[in-house]
Amino acid sequence: MSRARHPANDPPFRTVAALLEQHRRATPDKPAIVDVERRVSMSFEQLAQSVDAIARHFARRGVTKGTRVLLADCEAPDKLLLWLGAWRLGAIVCPLDVPFVGKATARKLLDTIRPALIVFPADAADTSVAGPDVPVARFVSWARAGREHADSGGDIISLQEREQEEEEAQDATPLPDGATISAPGDIASMCCTSGTTGIPKIVVYDHACYWLNGLDSIELLGSSADDRMLEYRSFDWYSAQILSFIPFLQLGSTLCVARRFSRSRFGEWIRDHRISVCAGVPTVLNMLLDAPLDVSADTFASLRTMTCSTAPLSPVQWRRFEKLYGIRILNLYGSSEAGWMCGNRLPHRKLGTVGYPAAHIRFDIVDADGVPCAPDVEGQVVVDGDKLALGILQRDGSLLPIRGAPLFTRDIAARDKDGFVRMAARMDDLIIRGGVKIVPQEIEDVMRAHPQVQDVAALSVPDPVYGQETVCFVVAQPGTKPSAETLRAHCHRQLAREKMPKDIYLIAALPRSARGKILRDTLRQQWWRIVNLRPDLSEPEQE
User: Fold this and answer.
1) CA geometry: angle at 492 spanning 487 and 493, to 5°?
2) Which sign, positive or negative, has the C-alpha torsion 38, 227, 222, 87?
């Protein structure tokens, strides 16, 4: 296993309060957080004052070091302010999107997390998920105009600057020493995974996870305090937290946020806010390819790079995107349990790979016996190091540990002679046809190279002879309708016989999770319905 590299010039861990104090002194008027949708911003001076005010609100509600504060249905940038206010007291932040996971699942998660306080937006219509025994607080959004909640008798946490200034004048409650309130080994957050299968896992992180992953993000992107980062993904996602949120705190750069991606406003955001680095996922890149933007040549002049992570990026789409927009893509690889594992860097990129290992992690690819694989030989990814998550929170309150032993992921990959890692598949997604292991991405990459194919998913389905067979669900390019025979002929020229898809189905769109991952079980259910409606599969229907 390769050794984790801890550069000698790594900055030592610093608390949120210490970082904000540093930035407010060095660059008090510099924009810290920018709401690109509402076109309002907050300076580092304003941010530091706001975080202290929110911390006092929380302290009056009994929040202290180690208190679990659940942020329910909070959107950026409000979530970031509340998050920092909780960390200012050494509290544990638990973000949860109740509509996304569903109320029934949310109740089960709350039974496990056992928060001492749940925070909802002031206009939340339903807070019943909290139950009768957990205190609830509400907040007024930072960007909301007016004082409609000012007479609420102290039940509302205001994120608005004017009301915070008035409350600060009346409340001089001392806050704990910000420089020492948190240590690297203290629990920082409990975050729920996407939960595409079953109840989401609750991953527990300490401050060391965030600090080291933030340093890795800075190194991967070549970031500096001059950067203006655009993040439109939910900060419930660990990826958004460690790619955008933490480096912004560490560097004192400018964090530009939107509540969700907007294709129609994307170019405007980049141009008007002089974005230098932008987060990305394959779904967004595909959206921008499916319906290309009609923008001027200088729209993306400030943009140094755009990342792509969370789900695999097809080399075909990668080439198309860079050719169309001239934006350099950095494909990254990480997970909720390990943070960043690999990444391309601007000086060292290789198309079709996720780059080479991150600095603060031990990384290897091993065979079935645990022996490191030779170059270009596929095996299982295994990682270790101080930035892995602490563990998974169990229903009884115990922690199923992750850190402290090698983490054997479910990912299959190979590393070339130059150290670049190429992802092959999830072990769960491998197709085993008559004992032959088939990687879905190989078939998908070949299929995507056809000019009439926009997107594709290859997956296994039961077969009475071979155990499993391959079928493909294809999304055609707009205005085209390729036949199954045409696509089969295209594959035949590049794939071995056992890797040829048995059946090909045209569909309008691939089902994906909120994080862009293909929902293969959903496609299998669709295949099952097709099979039962039409027993003869010799000539598949095209939808």
Assistant:
1) 105
2) negative
Q: pLDDT digits over 4-63, tens only?
A: 666 668 899 999 999 999 999 999 999 999 999 999 999 999 999 999 999 999 999 999
The kind and range of the H/E element at 139 are strand 136-140
Distances (CA, A) of 109 to 47, 80, 203, 519: 31, 22, 12, 23
What's the full length of the chain, in residues?
Answer: 543
Output the six-digit token pair for 44: 């580092």
Q: Could you tell me the sign of the dihedral formed by the alpha carbons of 223, 225, 230, 234, in that order? A: positive
Determine whether domain 430-533 maps to CATH 3.40.50.2300: no
Q: Burial code of 438-454, b = ≥16 C-beta within 10 A, e = fewer?
A: bbbbbbbbbbbebeebb
Backbone angles phi, psi at 284, to 5 degrees: -65, -45
Instruction: Indicate the burial class of 153 (C-beta count within 10 angstroms; 0-12, 13-18, 19 or more).
Output: exposed
Sign of CA dihedral 271, 275, 276, 282: negative
Entry pTM: 0.84
Strands 305-308 and 254-257: unpaired
Q: Do residues 48 and 287 make contact, with C-beta atoms less than 8 angstroms apart?
A: no
SS3 category, 43: strand
Question: Who's near 538: CB < 8 A, 6+ residues apart?
Answer: none
Q: Are 414 and 377 in contact (CB under 8 A)?
A: yes
Q: Do the Cβ atoms of 215 and 192 come closer than 8 Å?
A: no
DSSP state of 373: P
> Residue 211 and residue 215: Cα distance in Å, rounded?
6
Integer CA distances (angstroms), 256 to 170, 214, 216, in order: 32, 17, 20
Q: pLDDT tens digit string along 404-439?
A: 999 999 899 999 999 999 998 787 788 888 777 788
Residue intervals in the chain for CATH 3.40.50.980: 62-177
DSSP helix/strand/coil, 50: helix
| Residue 399 pLDDT greater than 50, yes or no | yes
Domain with CATH 3.30.300.30 in the chain: 430-533
- For position 165, what pLDDT does the model report? 58
Provide mean pLDDT across the span 307-319.
86
Domain(s) labelled CATH 3.40.50.12780 in the chain stretch across 185-361
What residue ranges in 435-491 does DSSP mark as E strands? 436-438, 453-463, 467-476
Res 151: pLDDT: 42
Per-residue pLDDT tens digits for 50-84: 999 999 999 999 999 999 999 999 998 999 999 99
> What amino acid occupies position 537?
L
For 209, the token pair is: 């996870």
3-state secondary structure of 120: strand
Fold of 62-177: Rossmann fold (3.40.50)
CA separation for the pair 301, 304 (Å, rounded)? 8
How far is Cα 251 from Cα 222, in angstroms, rounded to an integer? 12
The superfamily in CATH containing domain 185-361 is ANL, N-terminal domain (3.40.50.12780)
